[in-house]
Amino acid sequence: MTVLMSADELEAELRSVGAARYHNRHPFHQLLHGGALNRRQVQAWALNRYCYQAAIPIKDATLIARTDDPDLRRLWRQRLIDHDGTAPGEGGIVRWLALTEGLGLDRDMVTSRTRALPATRFAVQAYVDFVRDRPLLEAVASSLTEMFSPTIISERVAGMLANYNFITKETLSYFNARLDQAPRDADFALDYVKRHARTPDQQQAVIAALGFKCDVLWAQLDALHHAYVMPGMIPPGAFGYRDTWS
Question: Is the pTM above the cut of 0.85?
Fold first, then answer.
């Protein structure tokens, strides 16, 4: 592409990526929200998703360390507080562990990440590496999946509460804060990208960065679907290996 898009045209292109490629369209999420999974499969989802949740503040700290813009550092720092809190026992990661414990999973097993799927760990690390290695503008743009997260959170919470008798509002408390945090973060990142993507090449790079992040999220669900929906496909060492799934 050699034509520079307007800021509104760039935003429209970014939103079209989410409409086509965000992971709310993945079959595994449709099974999860629709009540078609058993308890062990939901446990597998929560355990594997912890790998991603735990990597988010590492990714954000990496981005902060890369910029000499104090305004960007100050605003992005809030993301660390959201996930890590300001004291032990606070923050999104603790609330995610409350979810896994509410599902009956051992905390040490979850936090060790050793029982997560290999593909989960590889996808999460690829995201951290992307934010570390790619231009800062692309690193910021990769966070723009948050533009679409309120929809999937609403679907997830409503569907899981309606369809699983082992799920409670308290179990899903992690998602309450994200309904406010994600739009706030997305608004800032979108404004940053629209202001700093000043050439056609930069605009295409930020669109590709969002596509990459969609791939990271999709790949994690591919791994879950392959391992826990398709019989006999759980890799050795992963959660549920040689267990009965019924």
Answer: yes
